[in-house]
Amino acid sequence: MKRYLRLFTRAQPLRGALFTLLALTLTPTLTLHCGHLISSAPITLTLPSLFSSILQFLLEGPGGPALSFLFERKLLVLSLSWCALVALAAYRATRPLPVYLLEYACFKPDNDRKLSYETCEYFVRRSRRFNTVSEEFMRTIFLKSGLGNETYAPPFIFQTDYEAKLKSAFQEAEEGLFSSVDALFTKTKVDPSQVDILIVACGMFIPCPSLSSIIVSHYGFRPTIKTFNLSGMGCSAGSVSIDMAAKMLRRKPGYALVVVTESTSLNWYFGDNRHMLVTNCIFRVGTAAVLVTSDQEKRGAAKLELLRSLRTHHGADDASYGAGIQQEDAEGNVGVALNKDLVRVAGAGLRDHITTLAPRVLPLSELLYYAYAVVRSMLLRRPGGQVGKQTQAHSPDFTKAFEHMCFHPGGKAVINALGRLLNLTEAVLEPTRMTLHRFGNTSSSSIFYELAYFDAKGRIRRGDRLWMLAFGTGFKACSLVWRALRDSCPDQDNPWSDCIHVYPV
Q1: 33 carries an active-site annotation
Q2: Membrane-crossing residues (predicted)?
Q3: Topology of the domain comprising 99-362+401-502
């Protein structure tokens, strides 16, 4: 009941007046005819017999055949026609509009910003900001991280003073923001004045004025544009921003520009806390700009249609909240600590998230088989509560719901845990691992670099379903379910264009 009351409160007063007028129009006619039927029926009249009497009355009643009956009762015909018209108008006014991903662009820095293992080791040693134990620890983490030698680093890494300053952070942010948005407007031929909503997400760099204001100033958006600046959302901010834009666009046709980035310059950790040193080894530079729209005329030009989204937040759990957190070390150096139980927390949070998503996307056959496997596992549980290898619970097969899966490349250990959780093959995880290898963890923009991998390979076909899953500190998770509207093909500015032939490695 509360759900319907909320729908009514959102309706316009005119719509409520129309329904009231309809009720007043129908009441006399329906009371007259239905009253005649009920008064002439036995006291023990049941619902099926009432429907049968009404049908008999329309076909064989005193008014003659049904057609003659309708002609003779013009008020009833007018009322029914008015009802159908109002219902159609109400449906068209309240139904959510479809949302499309029109185009996207990923920032690719110049080759002189590539951070190979040798360059990284050279920087660490020449900066003289780390002790020998920390240098060896970062060397071990880097070699096991799954990152290749062609990821990109912030500008200050290649300077002589090795000092991260505000100027370097602005340079890193503006290079990514302006480059990706320029490429996006060029590809779509959309003028900045057409954009209705601007959402900018950057987890760790929060200047004043905001990054969204910087973009508004640079491109001269109109004064009525709605702007949002998201911070502290971690690696999930990319999918969260798309979900946020879609919810606004479903109410009114328009364009939303979503720009997701991460500025690592001021967040490079100079200390010897091992939990904080890990971020130096896996996070890299990256920015993506996405244009989404609810304009039905753009459906033919769009790449994807958003079918469903789901967001979950597990911050109420202390372990989830503290798994990745910004803090000071014992010497006062600020960094982001990734605790030892991060993989366990991510696994638990993703399990809850996927459990919520599964009934909404899996086919009925897979849901029934999954329910059977869970019940069987419970019945065959060993004494003492232990479960044997032959009685492990069945993991739903999401490949029956999606042709492609695009997971956030948070790190090698996280990808491995996700593969075990969903019982995925290496072929399914290939795009995620290759994105980590080529670009590293670019935080909120990672899923769009991975989408570019699918396009560069030409794997997506019209009608295919794509599952995007991103997760980050908090612990938060967000899923986006897309349907391809056309076959994928690599663009000239695809970030994989110069190296896709060597992947997978």
Answers
A1: no
A2: none
A3: Peroxisomal Thiolase; Chain A, domain 1 (3.40.47)
